[in-house]
Amino acid sequence: TGGFDETAVVNRARNGDFRAFTELVERYEASIFRLTRHFTRSQGEAEEALQGTFLQAWEDLSELRGNCEFRPWLIRIAVRQVRMRRRAQKNGRAAWLDEPFEVEGETVAQELPDRALESLHPGLRAVFVLRDMEGIRTEDTAAMLQLPVRAVRRRLLWARMQVQERLGPYFKGNPSEAQAGQMRFRPRVLS
């Protein structure tokens, strides 16, 4: 069996082949859900954003340029979906935007990375998730979030330092501040 030829599948989907689009959904739905879940911190909101992302992708597939990679394009759509939902909720102020986070002495170690991530300000969390968890380049992250590259770098550093600060006490040999910029976060895989 050969590998997944994304370009061929995208081209078939672009020509109206719904089965090809279903292949793309199956390939990327877990990572897009993880991304929307990190941004929204809500299962229901993440599922709504995920559905909105793929509906929008199907509608806009003809606009995807031939030299554009599908995954980064899909991530941009997902980020827009989350932003639109945030704006729609702004009048009622969504609870997940305002919830403070406190570390409890009895925290289970497996939950620590998720809780440390959840405790970040949404603007820091967005940069952290895209850069360190999804591996998106700094320039692409800046474009997706409509921020200057310098702001992305600064927010990433702040986010890494905050995650380090929250997780440091739970691990032997705390990394120094100088190492914070080199830290990479790898979440556990959710099934």
Structure summary:
The protein is mainly alpha-helical and 191 residues long.
Q: Would you give an account of this structure?
A:
This protein is mainly alpha-helical. The protein has ten helices and no strands. The chain has helices spanning 6-14, 18-40, 43-60, 70-89, 95-98, 112-118, 122-133, 138-145, 149-167, 177-180. Helix 2 packs antiparallel against helix 3 (43-60), helix 3 (43-60) crosses helix 4 (70-89) and helix 8 (138-145) crosses helix 9 (149-167). The radius of gyration is 18 Å and the shape is globular. It starts with 5 loop residues before the first helix and ends in an 11-residue tail after the last helix.
Strand content: under 5%
What integer value in Å does the Rg equal? 18 Å
The residue ranges in which pLDDT falls below 50 over 5 or more consecutive positions are: 91-110, 172-191
Distance between the termini: 25 Å
Average of per-residue pLDDT values? 75
Largest sheet: none
Q: Which key phrases capture this entry?
A:
65% helix; 191 residues; disordered C terminus; mainly alpha; globular
